[in-house]
């Protein structure tokens, strides 16, 4: 049986320590919905499932631990309840305009289940050619930073495109108005003659 | 109740194919329109491809108004 101190070393203590490949393991945890009566038991089941996925120790083995030890393990992964911090990524990202049509099609066709192909999606956004294994070792803080920055860039691009479209529309309206005025003037001049 | 007629089955298959490959069909149409190959279009920036799609749509609309 594993020692609690060893398990504590295996567990991440922050989003910086939680790797993408370990985070993906959490999707396999069968999270049970809580109800009013069995609340604490269901919470404990979910917690053991999470700890088991992150440490690789089977759930039934974790159930043998004293409650105080399980509490210590749970305290270490408390950071999961808060979102990672919004900041710049360490890796270099492609500009939105540099993303190929192929990348777009890949992203759209996996939109329903992005997490199953997350390393490949991240790879398509990166400027440097990293392997899938290297991306799997990214921290979840880095993954969050990548998507935070992409979202920010996309919003900026949309805003500038909107501004450009509005300007083009205003120009068109002005042109049409001038045309109408000129036609009316021409008609008026002809009428006078 | 689900329709099991031949026509309905063809419709379902067509929808499935469209769902999976519509983006590739679009790339093929852009390739034909620009006299490029399908693979060249797939590797072009998405923004550029969509700009061409807009042009293609504009041309279709223009042709529609001409024929009216």
**Global structural class of chain B:** mainly alpha
Rounded to an integer in angstroms, the radius of gyration calculated over CA atoms of chain A is: 28 Å
* Shape descriptor of chain B: flat
Terminal CA distance of chain A: 107 Å
Run of helices and strands of chain A: HHHHHHHHH
Biggest sheet statistics of chain B: none
Indicate the low-confidence ranges of chain B by residue numbers: none
State mean pLDDT of chain A (0 to 100 scale).
86
Number of helix segments of chain A?
9
Oligomer: heterodimer
Count the E strands of chain A. 0
Overall average residue pLDDT of chain B: 90
Estimated structural class of chain A: mainly alpha
Rounded to an integer, what's the Rg of chain B over CA atoms?
16 Å
Task: Explain this structure.
The complex is a heterodimer of chains A (193) and B (68). Chain A is an all-alpha fold and 193 residues long. Chain A has helices spanning 4-10, 20-25, 39-55, 59-62, 67-76, 101-109, 118-125, 132-136, 140-192. Chain A has 2 domains: 4-81, no CATH class; 96-165, no CATH class. Helix content of chain A is 62%, strand content 0%. Chain A is elongated. Chain B has 68 residues and is mainly alpha-helical. The N and C termini of chain B lie far apart (43 Å). The chains are: A mainly alpha (193), B mainly alpha (68). The interface between A and B is medium-sized, with 12 and 12 residues.
């Amino acid at each position: 049986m594993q020692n609690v101190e060893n398990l504590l070393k295996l567990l991440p203590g922050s989003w910086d320590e939680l790797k993408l490949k370990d985070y993906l393991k959490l999707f396999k945890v069968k999270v049970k919905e809580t109800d009013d009566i069995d609340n604490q038991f269901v919470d404990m089941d979910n917690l053991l499932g999470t700890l088991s996925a992150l440490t690789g120790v089977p759930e039934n083995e974790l159930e043998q631990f004293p409650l105080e030890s399980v509490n210590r393990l749970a305290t270490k992964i408390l950071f999961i309840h808060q979102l990672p911090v919004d900041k710049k990524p360490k890796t270099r990202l492609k500009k939105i305009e540099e993303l190929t049509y192929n990348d777009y099609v890949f992203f759209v066709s996996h939109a329903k289940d992005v997490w199953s192909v997350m390393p490949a999606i991240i790879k398509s956004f990166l400027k440097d050619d990293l392997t899938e294994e290297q991306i799997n070792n990214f921290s979840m803080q880095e993954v969050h930073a990548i998507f935070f920055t992409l979202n920010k860039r996309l919003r900026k691009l949309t805003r500038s495109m909107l501004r450009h479209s509005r300007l083009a529309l205003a120009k068109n309206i002005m042109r049409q108005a001038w045309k109408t005025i000129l036609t009316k003037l021409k008609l008026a001049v002809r009428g006078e003659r | 109740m689900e329709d099991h007629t031949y026509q309905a089955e063809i419709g379902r298959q067509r929808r499935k194919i469209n769902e999976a490959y519509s983006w590739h069909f679009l790339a093929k149409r852009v390739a034909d329109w620009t006299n490029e190959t399908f693979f060249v279009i797939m590797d072009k920036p998405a923004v550029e491809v969509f700009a061409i799609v807009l042009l293609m749509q504009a041309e279709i609309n223009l042709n529609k108004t001409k024929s009216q």
